[in-house]
């Protein structure tokens, strides 16, 4: 699905017809799902790798059809971006995640952090920073409880305006993580200037840890790079204890993955928080 944006089959008109109709259908469905509250969030824990302590969650968007089946985010998020629908949806995600922090504060899990994915399309909106301010004020959350996950594409596109927006956000104490690090093309000097708080090491590098021939070296360099730039590192997609241990040895600060917990509905996440034993 990732390749769809790359102009796949652009010259084969019959397929383009099918493709376009399929996308139009999906976009109608997405609009409808958003309006009728059939989008919801799943919460995946993020933990301190050394101690196992829970630091917070990443909010991940889910679309459930009436028949109980799910449309995967890799299919509908690109569509939401192309149509601009990601702007109101993203705003809803942000508010919902902050609201959940307030709920968890009250219910005995205080001080967690919410990590929210932000599309480059949202960043291009001049009112983006203002809308984040409003979401924080409306939910009564302090800025340091929020982390925005941005991909390297955010760093590459429209560099100056993005840097200005990111600066405004970090000055407020909002944390910024560079998502899927190592899979894009941002330059190291740009990475330095961004002043992000966290480098999020992509799952593909975590998976290659177990390969003998130097698989750990890339992850090791990324962790060292984060440290040199004064950033913390978090690894995503940790599935095995061996991966957790290796990453901890390499000095990776934080982790997220099925080993700790899958993305869960709120009630399941609360139960998970209650049952979780660090270390
Ligand atoms: P991502 O930001 O890289 O999110 C991590 C993905 O890895 C999630 O997929 C998560 O369910 C999955 N994952 C976590 N731990 C493991 C693991 O141990 N093993 C494996 N195999 N997978 C793991 P998901 O939920 O399908 O989301 C896919 C992508 O959709 C996200 O990738 C993100 O780019 C995008 N996305 C999700 N929610 C939002 C949102 O609210 N806004 C925007 N703009 N994008 C979103
Ligand atoms: Ca993410
Ligand atoms: Ca990621
Ligand atoms: Ca990823």
Instruction: Give me the secondary-structure category.
Output: alpha/beta
Largest sheet: 8 strands, mixed, barrel
Q: Strand tally, please? A: 9
The secondary-structure element order is HEEEHHEHHEHHEHEHHEHEH
What does the average pLDDT come to?
89
Q: N- to C-terminal separation?
A: 38 Å
Question: In angstroms, what is the radius of gyration?
Answer: 19 Å
Helicity, in percent? 40-55%
Overall form:
globular
Strand content: 15-25%
List unreliable stretches of 5+ residues: 1-10
**Ligands present:** ligand C2E, calcium ion
Oligomer: single chain
Strand line-up of the largest beta sheet: 1-2-4-5-6-7-8-9
Number of helices: 12
Protein name: EAL domain-containing protein
Keywords: Phosphoprotein
Domain EAL: 23-277
Name the features.
279 residues; 12 helices; globular; binds calcium ion; binds ligand C2E; disordered N terminus; alpha/beta; EAL domain-containing protein
What does this structure look like?
- With 279 residues, this protein is an alpha/beta fold.
- 48% of the residues lie in helices and 18% in strands.
- It contains twelve helices and nine strands.
- Helix 11 links the parallel strand 8 and strand 9 (254-255).
- Helix 1 crosses helix 2 (73-83) and helix 3 (86-106) runs parallel beside helix 5.
- The radius of gyration is 19 Å and the shape is globular.
- It starts with 12 loop residues before the first helix and ends with a helix.
- The chain binds ligand C2E and calcium ion (CA) (3 copies).
How are the elements arranged and paired?
Blueprint: H1 13-35, E1 39-48, E2 54-64, E3 70-71, H2 73-83, H3 86-106, E4 113-117, H4 120-123, H5 128-139, E5 146-151, H6 152-156, H7 159-171, E6 175-181, H8 188-194, E7 198-201, H9 203-207, H10 215-228, E8 232-235, H11 241-249, E9 254-255, H12 266-275
Parallel strand pairs: 2-4, 4-5, 5-6, 6-7, 7-8, 8-9
Antiparallel strand pairs: 1-2, 1-9, 2-3
Helix pairs in contact: 1-2, 3-5
């Amino acid at each position: 699905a990732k390749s769809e944006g790359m102009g796949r089959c652009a010259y084969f008109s019959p397929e383009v017809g099918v493709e376009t109709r399929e996308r139009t259908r999906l976009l109608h469905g997405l609009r409808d799902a958003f309006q009728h509250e059939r989008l919801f969030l799943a919460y995946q824990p993020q933990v301190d790798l050394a101690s196992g302590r829970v630091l917070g969650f990443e909010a991940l968007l889910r679309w459930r059809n009436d028949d109980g089946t799910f449309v995967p985010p890799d299919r509908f998020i690109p569509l939401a971006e192309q149509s601009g629908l990601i702007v109101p949806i993203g705003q809803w995600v942000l508010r919902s995640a902050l609201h959940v922090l307030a709920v968890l504060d009250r219910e005995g899990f205080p001080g967690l952090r919410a990590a929210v994915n932000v599309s480059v399309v949202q960043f291009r909106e001049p009112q983006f920073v203002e809308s984040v301010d409003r979401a924080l004020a409306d939910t009564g959350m302090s800025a340091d409880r929020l982390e925005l996950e941005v991909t390297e594409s955010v760093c590459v596109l429209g560099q100056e305006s993005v840097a200005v927006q990111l600066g405004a956000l970090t000055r407020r104490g909002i944390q910024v993580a560079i998502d899927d690090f190592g899979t894009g093309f941002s330059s190291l000097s740009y990475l330095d200037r961004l002043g992000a708080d966290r480098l999020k090491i992509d799952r593909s590098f975590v998976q290659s840890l177990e390969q003998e021939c130097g698989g750990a070296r890339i992850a090791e360099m990324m962790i060292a790079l984060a440290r040199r730039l004064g950033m913390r590192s978090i690894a995503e997609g940790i599935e095995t204890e061996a991966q957790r241990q290796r990453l901890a040895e390499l000095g990776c600060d934080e982790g997220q993955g099925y080993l700790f917990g899958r993305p869960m509905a709120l009630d399941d996440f609360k139960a998970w928080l209650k049952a979780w034993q660090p270390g």
